[in-house]
C-alpha cells in the first residue's frame, strides 16, 4: 500500500465490481435475478472498464468492454441473456480476477474522520493515507440487523394483535359479569333455581363469583403483561434505532477513490472535500445512495472541472475542487456534489435532447427542465463513447436513486463558475411519517414530507376546469387528483352531501390536492419495495403493513405529479401563451371565490392577464379607473347585479368599447334574453361551463392593446 | 359366559391388529420402488390442477389483497404473508382459461420466489402418485405451456402445472425495456 502503488484504489473498486458482476450473473443463471439485473450488470461492466482504463490495464479493459457491449445490446433491446452468454461472462469474470492477482483485497486502514480536505494531483502519484471503507464492514452486519429488525417488527405486530384481542376479552368479561349479576339476582329472588336447596344456591353463587374474580384477575394480569411487552419492544426499537444510524463519513473514502481515479483518467488536478461527514443516517441508506454519489463525483471531474490550462486561462486556480456536502434538513438529508468547474452548457444539453428526439425544437424548456434531462437514462452530451463516460450512465443513476428513495435530484449551475448536483432523500428508510387517506375500500399512505396541508371541503367545492378539476385551499386554486381514479383503482367518493378530505401535496414548485373520502390519521410506516411481479406503477413508492398486518400502498408524490400532468396538462402547465400578451387585462367580476379563481386560472393559463373584483360595484370602479380588454361578469351578486353592470357600462361611451361576457347559473331563455337586452356580448351558463367554449368566446371578444 | 366370550373375541382382535400394525413396518409396500411425484391438488376457476409440492413454498388461506395500479393478466394486487409482501396472481386468469371466478380462497406461494403467489379456489389435498401416471397432456387439454403433465383421475383429467414456467413468463413481461442512448 505504498504511494508508489498506482493500482491500490483500482483493485479495491475492481473487487467490488467483480463481486457485483459475479453475484448478478449467478443469480441470472439460477433464474432468480430481478428484471433490472441486466442494467446493473451493464453499469458494473462499464465502471470496471473505466477503472481499468485509468490504470492502463488493457486486458481488463478489453474483457470488460466485451461484456459491456453485449449487455448494452440486451439492455437496449430488452432481451435476456442466454445460458451460453452467462457462462461465458462468468468465465471472463474469473479471467479478470486472475489478471488482477491474488492481493485483491487490501486491508482497510483507519478512517480519517468526517472532515477531509486534500489536493489530488493529476498524476499517478496518489495521496498518502488511503481511506478505509467501513461501509464494507457494515455490509456484513446489516443482514443480522435486518433479521433482528424483521423479528422485532413481527413481535410488535403480534403484540398489537394480542392487545387487540385482550381488549375484546375485557369487553367479554364485562358482559359476562353483567350477565352473572342478573343470574345471581334471579337466583336470589327465586325466579331461577327454585328446585335448588339454599346451600346449593350459595355454592353456585360462590363458585360463579370465584370464577369471575379469577377471570378478571387473569385478564388484568395479562393486560399488564402485554403492556410490559409493548414497553420492552419500544425500548428494543429505540436501541435498534441507535444501531441503525451510521455517519456518512464512512462513504467518503470510496468517493475520494472515485474522484482520484476519474481525475487521473482525464489528467486533471482536483481537490477533494468532504463536508458534514458526521451526519448520521440510516445504515441502509448508504449502500443505496453510494452509486449515485460515485457518479456525481465522476461526473463533476469528467464534465465539470476544466483542464489545468483552461482553468489558468479563465483566471481560476489550476486545481479544481469537488466537494461532497452533507446536510440534515429536518427528516431529510441532502448530499450535494459541488464543483468549481465550467458549469453546464445548457443550450448544448437542449440541442442534444432535440437531436435524440427527447424533446422537439418547439418545446419550451426552461433551464431547470433542460437540466432535468441530464437525469434521464441514456442521456449523454458526449459525441462518442469513452472509457469514462458517454454511455449515458451517470446522472441517470442519481435520478433513479431519487425516485426509488422518494427523494429529489436537482442541478444548479452557473456557466464558468461551476455546478451543484443535489440529491435529497429521507433520513431514514426504516420509517416514514405518513397520512392515511381512504376512499371506498382503498386506503393509501402519503409521505408527510410532501404534504403541506390536510383539509376538508364540501363535495361541491370541487370545480371542473378544462380537462381536470380544481379546488381552492387557502385562496390558492389547486388542481385536483382523485385518489382512486388517479391510481386506476375502482373507488368512488361517497354521496354529494359528504365532506371530502384532501392533502395538499407539494413537489418542487407544483402543488396539487389529493382527494379522498377521509383522512384516517397520521402514523409512522415501514416502507418496503413492491414485489417485482407487482410492477413499478406510477405514483406508488412501495407498501407498508397496517396494524392488522395487511398491505397498504405508499404513494410517490413525484409520480402523482406526473400522473396529474398527463391527466390535466393545463393544470400544471406554465402560464402564458406569448401571443396572448398583446391584450389588455381582463376584468373578472364575481362574488364567488371559486368562480373567480377558476376563471382567472383558465384565462391566465391561456396567456391573458387578469384582474378581479368581488362585486359589481368594485368592478365598475376598477373599470372606470383602468383599461380592460374584456369584462367577465357574474349575474347574481349582492348589490348591483350583472345585468345592471352591463347596462351601466354599455351606457358609458368609453366602457362600451369593452365587451361583457355574463357567466351565470341562470340558464333559462328568459335570462339569456335579458342578458342580450342589457348589452352582453356572450352568455355562458356555469352548469354547462366548458373551458374551450369559454375561451373561444373570450378570444373573439377581447380588445387588443392600443 | 358372555363376558368371557367377549374378552376372548377382543383379545383375538387386538392380537390381529397388533400383528397387522407390526407387519406394516416390515412389509414392502407395493410400488414403493417406483418413482413418486408428490403433488398438491387444487382447483382454480372451474378446472382442476396440481403442482409438484417441491415448487410450493407456502400454502395460506388468502387474506386481504391490496389492489395495485396496473393491468397485467391475472394480477390481483399484493398481500402480506407473515410480514412479507407477495404479488398475487389469480391462477385461473393467469392461465388465460376460466378467468377469475372471485372465489379464490387460497394462496400458493412459489418456493423459488417467495414474492410471487398464485390464488386458487380450493386445495383438494396432497397425493404421492407414481410418475408413470403422469402423462403428457393432449394439446386440447393443456391450454397453457405451464401445464406440462396430466393426471388421469376417475372423473377426468387434472393438469399438472410447472410454477417455474409461470414465473419465467412473468419475468419476461417485466423485462426492462430501457431505451439506450
Produce the secondary structure layout.
The complex is a heterodimer of chains A (706) and B (181).
Chain A: H1 8-29, H2 37-54, H3 58-77, H4 83-100, E1 116-120, H5 134-140, H6 142-189, H7 198-244, E2 245-247, H8 252-265, E3 270-275, E4 280-282, H9 285-304, H10 308-313, E5 320-329, E6 332-339, H11 346-355, H12 367-372, H13 395-404, E7 408-414, E8 418-426, E9 432-439, E10 442-447, E11 451-458, E12 463-465, E13 468-473, E14 476-482, H14 483-486, E15 499-507, E16 510-516, E17 518-525, E18 540-545, E19 551-555, H15 557-567, H16 569-572, E20 586-589, H17 593-605, E21 610-613, H18 616-625, E22 630-634, H19 642-651, E23 659-664, H20 669-678, E24 682-685, H21 691-701
Parallel strand pairs in A: 3-5, 10-19, 14-16, 20-21, 20-22, 22-23, 23-24
Antiparallel strand pairs in A: 1-3, 2-4, 5-6, 6-8, 7-8, 9-10, 9-17, 11-15, 12-13, 13-14, 15-16, 18-19
Chain B: H1 2-26, E1 36-44, E2 47-52, E3 56-61, E4 75-81, E5 84-90, H2 91-94, E6 106-110, E7 116-120, E8 122-130, E9 134-135, H3 139-142, E10 147-153, E11 156-161, H4 163-173
Structural summary, described in words:
The complex is a heterodimer of chains A (about 700) and B (about 180). In chain A, a hairpin with a 2-residue loop joins strand 5 (about 320-330) and strand 6. The longest helix of chain A is centred in the N-terminal third of the chain and has 48 residues, at about 140-190. Helix content of chain A is about 45%, strand content about 20%. Chain A is flat and about 95 Å long. By secondary structure, chain A is of the alpha/beta class. Chain B is an alpha+beta fold. Chain B is about 25% helix and about 40% strand. Chain B has helices at about 1-25, 90-95, 140, 165-175; strands at about 35-45, 45-50, 55-60, 75-80, 85-90, 105-110, 115-120, 120-130, 135, 145-155, 155-160. Chain B is built from four helices and eleven strands; from the N terminus they run H-E-E-E-E-E-H-E-E-E-E-H-E-E-H. The model of chain B is unreliable at about 1-5 and about 175-180 (pLDDT under 50). In chain B, the strands form two sheets. In chain B, strands 8-1-2-11-10-9 form a six-stranded mixed β-sheet, with no helix packed on it. In chain B, strands 3-6-7-5-4 form a five-stranded mixed β-sheet. The interface of A and B includes residues 79, 153, 530 and 533 of A.
